[in-house]
Amino acid sequence: MYLMLLIHQSFISLRELLTQPMHPSEEYITYTTEIGKKVMRYDIVNGEQMEDLVVLPGDLTDQVVAIAVNYLPDGRLLHSRGDYIEILDEEGKVIQRIDLEEHGWGIAQVTPSSDGEHFFTANIFSGVMLKVRLDDGEVVGSIDTGFAVPKRSFAGIAEYSL
Question: What is the pTM of this model?
Fold first, then answer.
């Protein structure tokens, strides 16, 4: 908890710290800021900032942004980009792109499924959550909360086994 607060304080006057998943090695966290241009990392073993994993071109008005990140168990990184998801390798290179444009700009949260074959994501403007297959990007399920703009939904996604 102390680590998260320390990192958040450095951005408190700029924007909100969105996601900070721990890498499967448990050596560092990876994080973004609200509608920022970088995917950043912090070494929790040595207590120091690491080189940025991704730095996107352009300015903050072009909708080319790094929104949220989350790790798959094998170390690949899910990276939401507004109307698509990128899957990045350990060096930050895009190894797969999953187009979700038909679901609108605003795809934010991204959470791996416990089955290792899917992930969940949600559009904060439409209030729709999607279940997406990793290998081919097919949307295999969805839930519409009814909380579309001007209401907001999906501050996070959690999967529970019954």
Answer: 0.84
